[in-house]
Write a structure and sequence with these properties.
The protein has 293 residues and is α/β, with parallel strands linked by helices. Helix content is 40%, strand content 15%. It starts with 8 loop residues before the first strand and ends with a helix.
Length: 293
């Protein structure tokens, strides 16, 4: 079935401009530079980015986005969900407040380790898995009660990274999925196959393309996640090993009508000269449109 590019809901993400919650990630661009670039590219929506990037007050948040012709689609919320002694619900409630303030409706949950960054993690024991799966359903249920969709983001360096861990979440919980084509591929999951087999679970999509050689070095431990990102792990759509066009067609045929977020995690050493990250985001946007024309 042909896909009309104009029908796709495409959004930006501050991480494509190097804006990250990870301490020491790199040079952080100011919010007005990022939002102005998004507007110039013709994007009309964005994920929030890390806490503090956008204003936290409900009216200030909405006003800042509106000033650039943008609205929020939601964003990334890392929670420690595997520790029986920790309750992730208060953090989630605050994030849902931000979504509702901005008219956004997606909470992208990541089952973070509790450590800084994404370069180390431990394997979960049975109690950890039981706690994680129960919390995922509890958090998704609470989000739904408040009018927000929760989607679990399998992510390198979190408690749900590998294909077997993704399978365990699918089998052991009912939470929807954020299909991040890059993180899934590096973690050993075929994102196109996942979208085809579990279309009913897909709630949100991050489009990434992957340098296969760097991905292999992350998978076998030769590079940490941060080292690989700095070396260029994520490449503009169409230049890597993920079949992005097939991914979108598969989702479309499965009835997916949610957001496609252009998200190429980037590290900057300094203020970019010229167009900077916007040039690669433009390539990604052009690829999506051309591949589906």
């Amino acid at each position: 079935m042909p896909v009309n590019p104009a029908s796709l809901k495409v959004a930006g993400a501050p991480i494509s401009w190097g804006v990250s919650e990870v301490p020491g990630w790199g040079h952080q661009l100011p919010v007005d530079r990022v939002l102005a670039d998004m507007r110039a590219l013709g994007l009309t929506a964005t994920e929030f980015g890390p806490v503090g990037f956008l204003p936290t007050g409900p009216q200030a948040l909405a006003d800042r986005l509106r000033a650039y012709g943008l609205h929020g689609v939601g964003g990334f919320c890392g929670v420690v969900a595997h520790d029986p002694s920790h309750d992730p619900l208060p953090r989630v409630e605050v994030f849902i407040d931000s979504c509702l303030a901005a008219g956004a409706d997606v909470m992208v949950l990541a089952a973070v380790t509790g450590l800084e960054g994404y370069d180390a993690r431990a394997e979960l024991d049975e109690l950890g898995w039981k706690t994680l799966l129960a919390n995922l359903d509890r958090l998704a249920g609470r989000a739904g009660e408040r009018g927000v969709v929760a989607a679990l983001h399998p992510h390198l360096g979190t408690m749900v990274e590998t294909s077997s861990e993704v399978d365990r979440v699918i089998a052991g919980s009912t939470i929807g999925l954020c299909v991040d084509t890059g993180h899934l591929a590096v973690g050993g999951t075929d994102p196109v196959a996942l979208a085809g087999e579990h279309a009913e679970r897909v709630r949100h999509v991050h489009l990434k393309d992957v340098d296969a050689e760097l991905a292999a070095q992350v998978a076998d431990g030769r590079l940490t996640f941060a080292e690989a990102v700095r070396a260029g792990l994520w490449v503009p759509l169409g230049q890597g090993s993920v079949d992005i066009a097939a991914m979108i067609r598969t989702l479309h045929e499965g009835g997916y009508a949610g957001w496609y977020v252009l998200e190429q995690d980037l590290m900057l050493d300094a203020e970019p000269i010229g167009r900077g990250p916007a040039a690669d985001v433009e390539k990604c946007l052009a690829f999506v449109r051309a591949a589906l024309a």
